[in-house]
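Archive maintenance. Older records in this collection stored only the sequence; we are now back-filling the structure field for every entry so that each record is complete. The fields below show one back-filled record exactly as it appears after the update. Entries are processed alphabetically, and YppE family protein is next in the queue.

ARCHIVE ENTRY
Title: YppE family protein
Organism field: Lysinibacillus xylanilyticus
Length field: 117
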Amino acid sequence: MLLIEQTSILIDECEKCVSRFWQMREEDRTPDFFTEVKPHADVIHQLLKEWQQEANSWIQKNRPKYMHTQQIASAVESMEQFVVQSFYKETSKKRFLDAIHSTSYTLKIFDGLVKEV
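Back-filled structure field:
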């Protein structure tokens, strides 16, 4: 149950990152790293660390055909980067949105697999 909740929170965070990205561009401002960016990123990074451990354990136990620990590692690495990038208007739009799309896709596929079992 914890794994499903964590996955859902991460899927929501992907959507929030896109919204934040557009909002920061619209406001045309640079956030304060230590009061805005770091506290949020720290919470998400801790959640990602816990989720990765849970997800890897689930994969080893259930051995799904189309989901591997490397995909989980890639999603975590990508998300660690774009959560921080979402605060900065200078972020490359195409690369940022592609990273979120890819990670979100992996999270949704994983979520479906976990709910099946």
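Update note: The chain has a mean pLDDT of 96. The radius of gyration is 15 Å.
Entry marked complete.
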